[in-house]
From TrEMBL:
GO terms for cellular component: cytosol; ribosome. GO terms for molecular function: ATP binding; galactokinase activity. It catalyses: alpha-D-galactose + ATP = alpha-D-galactose 1-phosphate + ADP + H(+). It comes from Gigaspora rosea. This is Galactokinase.
Amino acid sequence: MTESNEFVPILSLNSIEQPTLLKRCKTLIEKFKSLYNNSPDFIARAPGRVNLIGEHIDYAGFGVLPMAISNDVIIAVNFSNKKGYTNVRLSNIIDDKYKQKSWDFEGKDKIVEIIVEAGVSEWSNYFKCGYKGILRHLGIDNPVGMDCLVDGIVPIGAGLSSSSSFVCCAALATSHANNAKLTKKQITEISIECERFAGMNSGGMDQTASIFSQFGHALYVEFLPTLNATPTKLPTTNSPITFVVANSLVKADKVITAPIHYNLRVVETKLAAYHLGQLLFGEGCENLKHLCDLYSKSTKVTIDNLEKLSDYVDQVYKKNQNGYTLEELSIMLKLSSTEIYDKFIAKFPVRAERFHLYKRSKHVFEESCRVLKFYKVCTSDSNMDDIKVFESLGNLMNQSHQSCKELFDCSCDELNDLVKICLDGGAFGSRLTGAGWGGCTVSLISEDNVEKFIQHVVTNYYNLKFPSLSKSELNDAIFVTKPSNGAMILKDL
Ligand code: NG1
Ligand code: MG
């Protein structure tokens, strides 16, 4: 259970045992000194995540099961309490690609402008999201000045949550510099909300995984009635369960494609929630925002009642699997097109001719059901044979991929090829992870088969499609992930 008074750990840099993280921190500190002629006061760290199961259901309010990866964002910060000095300077160690930015606090109402231009992604926006979110939440009107240097190693556009790790890290850095005592839950909730400034109407899986994860554990995250994160051990088997991430190397720039992909999916699930709410509970269910709101506060989400909802979706929508036009929706929902626009679309614009209520809501209920089944295998102490454990978790992951492909339309040819190759290479389960439309797959392997598995994928995917990859690019593209620590502040630099 989430303790509501738990804080992000503040650790001494010397206590860090991971050699690569320690080395990166030391390099960051040296670079900081030569860049700003000053030493950093602390380093904030927040990791990316791989989602094991539960795709595109967080924004519908249902539980998911990600785990933090060791790839992370670290930000070295020097803050200044000098009166009236509220300037922020933000630099990246890759300074030719990510140019230095600086801005001044513009007063409590404005804080800082986040410019989201159609078709352009600006690296500093994610920092500004976290910065703005914290200052707004705290109502601060004289923030400290900050010099910051960023080193991020979560692959971008890969479905491993590079954006949220950056937002969470910026929120953490800003709150620590301004001496705010915010709990993990507060930092997470602020990060979830403020990442939406960047243009995606996202759920809260990534930020929760980044802040709450614990070493050696996956994280079962529930959102309703309130955010709750439960560290969860994977079942013990003779040859341990291992997850391998493989990047399709198709980059998905989700902010740019949001109007036809991510944000559109969010709208479709919300339209279904509103409509199913009317059918099940009568008109006047304007408050149903998420499919999970179909549950009353006192009803637990169970495998059984999810299956019933999934059957109900068949009854209501199956005859019309090709979706509905805005005009058709207007009749179904008893709302004018303008009302539909204002209620569901205005904040995060989308473009579509037809809205797919059947496919999206069917996926959401079935996928939520798979998360519960996966969680059950992890937490029940039945003495299942190893092979059964691998097969049952693997099958759930395979079904998840199939559903992302067929019902949620968030896969792509390369991801489907890669999943197939991973299964041929001995994975018990393989699926796209994260938002999809490119990015990574995650595969479930028994540890003693990892080397052979990776070789198989390299031969059949990377060597054929990307023959010119260097050894180090290959190591970045396909790697074993162990459940890593969540966010932290490092001091005593
Ligand atoms: P990625 O793949 O990191 O963009 C996105 C959302 C999640 C979740 C997944 C799909 C953001 C920041 N994250 O993750 O909330 O909805 O897609 O399961 O938009
Ligand atoms: Mg200072």
